[in-house]
Design a protein that fits this description.
By secondary structure, the chain is an alpha/beta fold. The chain contains 12 helices and 8 strands. α9 packs across α10. The longest helix has 20 residues.
Length: 328
């Protein structure tokens, strides 16, 4: 009897991918969007843990973006802050390269998987996927933080807390003047096509932005109140009611409780359980709409060896579930 692989099952579901049994992987060893070293080694550790072999074991072919080390060597020698923003030129250069690599995978009809690296790289992944799938692209953002600060609202100046403000078009001219390193980033995601799951640490300025623009967010309060199954259903109904639009899912491992994923830069107690995190990925995979996935903020430098092993293992598991791995 011929065994049906996970890749074949996902290909049967897929509504958008022309090359649905090939996964395009971009590894982004980058930490410039935040101050803690080590997150640049996240993708290397996931590869070392066997994520590429695991994906191939599911029946997929893997196409790997070339020259991963360029992200480490492209850092400018001189990169002073612009206003509050730290490492702005480096973040912009990395995001632009990510955008090109993700766009290349999407244009070939592959499911684009990006392994970070800090969450500032999502500025690039979203530009890249939306260049192919247009402004009907839906974004499911799984995170403890909303990452929607503008250059003027951010307190820390760390750009991993700002990527969504750029791609949503929330920055005004004073935030992004014509000579800004980020002038190339044009609004590409509709505010009504963004939904959050797992928020629990949101800056006051970000709360004001979410309310002003009526952006849908399900916090951990909602997960506690309704259960993860209902929350995911409501989230998908908000951005993609009939499940006929492409989905880009961006998953920060700090959405998980620190007891589940301890090796990450900004852990916050009270997060998603192991099963809640995996259920989100399973449910999105079942829609047949997933076209791009980010898995970010695994930081091998934080915690003991067991914390690293645990976090890398859960990161790999989330990727596999997003690609159709099921319990039965």
């Amino acid at each position: 009897m011929t065994l049906v692989t996970d890749a074949q099952l996902m290909a049967d579901r897929s509504k958008f991918l022309k090359n649905s049994t090939t996964v395009g992987i971009t590894c982004v060893p980058f930490s410039g969007g935040q101050p803690k070293g080590g997150v640049e080694d996240g993708p290397v550790e996931m590869v070392r843990f066997g994520i590429l072999d695991q994906i191939q074991g599911m029946g997929y072919s893997v196409e790997l973006s070339e020259n991963m080390d360029k992200y480490r060597t492209m850092q400018p020698a001189h990169d002073p802050p612009i206003g509050k923003l730290k490492n702005p030129r480096y973040v912009s250069m990395a995001a632009r390269r990510v955008a090109e690599q993700v766009q290349a995978h999407c244009s070939q009809g592959r499911l684009a998987v990006t392994l970070g690296g800090d969450h500032s790289i999502a500025m690039g992944t979203l530009v890249g996927s939306s260049a192919v799938y247009g402004d009907d692209l839906c974004v499911v953002w799984i995170d403890a933080h909303s990452d929607i600060n503008t250059p003027s609202s951010t307190d820390s100046g760390n750009l991993h807390g700002c990527p969504l403000s750029f791609v949503l078009g929330l920055c005004d001219e004073s935030d992004v003047p014509a000579d800004s390193p980020f002038a190339w980033v044009k609004p590409c995601i509709r505010q009504s096509r963004l939904v959050y799951i797992g928020l629990r640490d949101v800056d006051a300025g970000e709360k004001a932005i979410l309310r002003k623009h009526n952006i849908k967010a399900f916090s951990m309060h909602d997960v506690d109140k309704y259960g993860i199954g209902r929350v995911v259903e409501m989230a998908l109904d908000h951005v993609n009611k009939d499940r006929v639009l492409p989905i880009h899912m961006s998953f920060d491992v700090d959405a998980l409780d620190p007891s589940v994923a301890p090796a990450t830069g900004t852990p916050v107690r009270g997060g998603l359980t192991f099963r809640e995190g995996h259920y989100i990925c399973e449910a999105v995979a079942e829609t047949g709409c997933l076209v791009a996935l980010d898995l970010v903020e695994v930081n091998p430098a934080l915690g003991d060896p067991e914390s690293l092993r645990q976090t890398v293992a859960v990161g790999c598991s989330l990727v596999r579930c997003s690609l159709g791995e099921s319990l039965l």
